Amino acid sequence: MSLVLAIETSSPAHTVAVGDGDSPAAQRSARREDPGFAGLGDLTAQLLAAAGAAFSDIGTIAVDIGPGGLSSIRSAVAYANGLAFSLGVPVFPISSLELMAIDAQLGQPGPVLCLKRAQGGNLYAGLFDGGETLELRHGRPDSVLPAIAAGLPTLRVAGGIGFDLPALLPGVAIVDTGIADADVTILYRAARGAIEGPDRLVDAADALNEGSLVFHKY
Hints:
With 218 residues, the protein is α/β, with parallel strands linked by helices. The chain has 2 domains: 3-95 and 182-208, ATPase, nucleotide binding domain (Nucleotidyltransferase, domain 5, 2-Layer Sandwich); 96-176, ATPase, nucleotide binding domain (Nucleotidyltransferase, domain 5). It has helices spanning 40-51, 70-87, 96-104, 141-148, 165-168, 184-196, and strands spanning 3-8, 14-19, 26-30, 58-64, 91-94, 112-117, 123-129, 132-139, 154-158, 173-176. Helix 2 links the parallel strand 4 (58-64) and strand 5. The protein is globular and about 55 Å long.
């Protein structure tokens, strides 16, 4: 048995999923503030027990590398890297923004703007289309959003709750996808696909934050 373990912590809950088919065989979720939450290791042990599997059955570890809550993302990436090293298996790292884009583009082609709140009134923004990452930015909404959406008459948005997008993007028709956060099932399925094209599998992942170079190329 060679299982995919998916770890997602950029959304409000810590969620793990595992399986070897098209969809996870088992899934567990807990918030950090829950009295019974004892960490990702314990949550993963519960998950594997529910699936009738052992740690040694894991063949690939998928991890949401953010952006998101800094401590949550760092703990998830550190746990994924440590577990991968101990088991001798690869890691599939993917951003929360890309996961939302994959979710939003299922059966719905066209550009998608994915947003995450950042500290100090800033945001993370990613523009995606047809499986391609067009731009990633971090900064003030009133400067980042007009720059990243320039020239687009219509824009589908994920993670846009709480942003006054019509005011920030005048003249752009905004379509809310209803997607608020990354989903562990999408992470699991993306990892299953990556196994077939292992160029995105690595020995260790790096967490994304406001200082990451991918957000400051423009």
